[in-house]
Amino acid sequence: MFRSIIFATFVAISAVVASPTVFNSTVGQRTCGTQPTDAEVARMEAHFAANEVTPKSDGADHAPSEVPVYFHVIYADTTLNGGYIPDSQITHQMRVLNTAYSNALLNWKVVGITRTLNADWFNNAGPGNSQQSAMKVALRQGGPNALNVYTVGFKSGSGSGLLGYATFPSSYSSNSKDDGVVIRYSSLPGGTAAPYNLGHTLTHEAGHWVGLYHTFQGGCSGGDSVADTPPEASPAYGCPTGRDTCRDSGVDPIHNFMDYTDDSCMNEFTAGQVTRLRSQIATYRGIS
């Protein structure tokens, strides 16, 4: 496995099309720092409709599509609390990710790990700021089909309290260096960000990276562009069995990886989400 130790400080500014997920340590909830507006969703969906590529058949004859993954560990010091996560946690995280996406016929495979000592990036990287831009410009590898994962601390600055954020597929062509997922290091399996420490922060953020919105996007009007996810008025927290916030539409999809419930509550992508993500990555990432 390729490894490199990078000691770097760069300054760059780039626009982020992101969907941050925030961990509020006071109330113990996963919440969203930013969401695409209705106008932004409409723009992305219009572009998708005009340019959609039909993926290969998802039948039994279709082998899983391999997605190369570059894991970038940013650390403040060489302790676990300083963000220096071991390979064993990354291996466990990838098992969780591959299990979650098994029905989507995606095989995520780590092809590179970098470890970078940079306390400023570790503590302060966040959506749209100079630290995250410099980090991505310095470290990102591969093309549109490669998932770059950055683990940081989200200690302060615009990233304070975040669990993670991700770019959408349609933004790659306008800002390729910004493409990827940034997550809190302690959300990996065995980390300390309970109840979000079973690895589904990356599952959730990778969902945005392959083109999925939150299940509650658009509220009861159902704005996630997937027909078989019941509309949901607002994010669900914990694991509220039977929660139903939109009348006559079915119970809320609290077990869906694109909601905000505890990691232990999440266990599914719907068939409609799989169809959408396969089309999104065929269209924008060249993965079919």
TrEMBL record:
Pfam families named in the record: Peptidase_M43
InterPro entries: MetalloPept_cat_dom_sf (IPR024079), Peptidase_M43 (IPR008754)
Keyword list, A-Z: Disulfide bond, Hydrolase, Metal-binding, Metalloprotease, Protease, Signal, Zinc
Coiled-coil ranges per UniProt: none
SUPFAM superfamilies in the cross-refs: Metalloproteases ('zincins'), catalytic domain
Domain Peptidase M43 pregnancy-associated plasma-A span(s) in chain numbering: 148-281
Record's signal peptide: 1-18
Domain of life: Eukaryota
GO biological processes: proteolysis
Sample GO molecular function, one term: metal ion binding
Transmembrane segments: none
Homology family: Belongs to the peptidase M43B family.
Name this protein carries in UniProt: Metalloprotease
Species the sequence originates in: Crepidotus variabilis
Lineage, opening ranks: Eukaryota, Fungi, Dikarya, Basidiomycota, Agaricomycotina
